[in-house]
Design a protein that fits this description.
By secondary structure, the chain is mainly alpha-helical. A two-stranded parallel sheet has the order 1-2.
Length: 125
């Protein structure tokens, strides 16, 4: 059995589970429902307000087989792999590790030339 940090173990998995970010959640759900997703989103704020959590929740409705839909099925391969944090088309990049321009170019820009393996979109967090 592998160790999972408590913050990741109990991280919200759906938009309805996010507390204190009603405006952001509503905006993202409306963008998905009206098929008006932007090319990129910037989540900014103090540490611990839910930036990464909200970005990870946004992955599932965008790449769900039924989607893009505000309510992902949770049963398709994409939903399951994204929830487990092992989807190949979703890359979570630690900003503290990749501080130089060359490192960011290597991790973000070069993989953009390759289309997503299975999902609809390739997502970088």
């Amino acid at each position: 059995m592998s160790y999972v940090a408590l913050a990741r173990k109990w991280r919200p998995q759906r938009f309805e589970d996010v507390i204190g970010q009603r405006g952001v959640v509503g905006t993202l759900k409306n963008a998905i429902a009206s098929s008006r997703l932007a090319q990129s989103y910037i989540f900014a704020g103090a540490r611990g307000v839910g930036k990464t959590t909200t970005a990870r929740i946004l992955e599932r409705p965008v790449n769900c087989v039924k989607g893009p839909t505000p309510e992902p099925c949770g049963a398709c391969d994409a939903c399951i792999e994204i929830a487990d944090g092992r989807d190949m088309d979703v890359l979570e990049i630690d900003g503290a590790t990749y501080t130089r321009v060359d490192a960011v170019r290597e991790v973000i820009v070069e993989p953009l030339a390759i289309s997503p393996y299975r999902d609809r979109f390739k997502i970088f967090i």
